[in-house]
Design a protein that fits this description.
Strand order of the largest sheet: 1-2-3
Strand content: 15-25%
Order of helices and strands: HEEEHHH
GO molecular function, one term: nucleotidyltransferase activity
Pfam families: MTPAP-like_central
Radius of gyration: 16 Å
Organism: Alexandrium andersonii
Number of helices: 4
Shape: elongated
Helix content: 55-70%
Distance between the termini: 42 Å
InterPro entries: MTPAP-like_central, NT_sf
Largest sheet: 3 strands, antiparallel
Number of strands: 3
Protein name: Poly(A) RNA polymerase mitochondrial-like central palm domain-containing protein
C-alpha cells in the first residue's frame, strides 16, 4: 500500500479478504475509519490485528521482542497481564481503555523495578 488514509487501506483490505478467508482467518471487526485502520481477525482461536503502513506498530513489536529476548519473563508476564485485562474488559484503546501494548509496557516496568 503506497497510499495514505483509510480509503487505500480499505481497498487493500478488500483485496486481501479472499486470501485471508482461504487461510481460514475470520474477520471479527473492520475498523477502517480509525487513525490507523485495522482488521480484527481470529485464526485457530487466536486474535490478530492487521494494519497497513503502521511503522509505529512495527517499532513497538521490535521493542517487545528485544525485551523478551533479554528475559522470557517479559513475554510470560505480558501475556498474563493482557489476558487478565481483556477478561476484566479493561483493554481496548478504541473504547477509551489502555491498549494491550500499554498493559505490556506496565508489565515490563514492573519487572524493571522489581527485578
Amino acid at each position: 500500500n503506497g497510499g495514505q488514509g483509510w480509503e487505500s487501506s480499505e481497498e487493500d483490505f478488500r483485496k486481501l479478504a479472499p486470501v485471508l478467508e482461504a487461510a481460514q482467518f475470520h474477520v471479527e471487526e473492520a475498523i477502517l475509519h480509525a487513525r490507523v485502520p485495522i482488521l480484527r481477525l481470529r485464526h485457530q482461536g487466536k486474535e490478530v490485528d492487521l494494519s497497513f503502513n503502521n511503522k509505529k506498530a512495527l517499532q513497538n513489536t521490535r521493542l517487545l521482542k528485544a525485551y523478551s529476548t533479554l528475559d522470557p519473563k517479559v513475554s510470560q508476564l505480558g501475556i498474563a497481564v493482557k489476558l487478565w485485562a481483556k477478561k476484566q474488559e479493561l483493554c481496548g484503546a478504541s473504547t477509551g481503555h489502555l491498549s494491550s501494548y500499554a498493559f505490556t509496557l506496565m508489565a515490563i516496568y514492573f519487572l524493571q523495578v522489581k527485578y
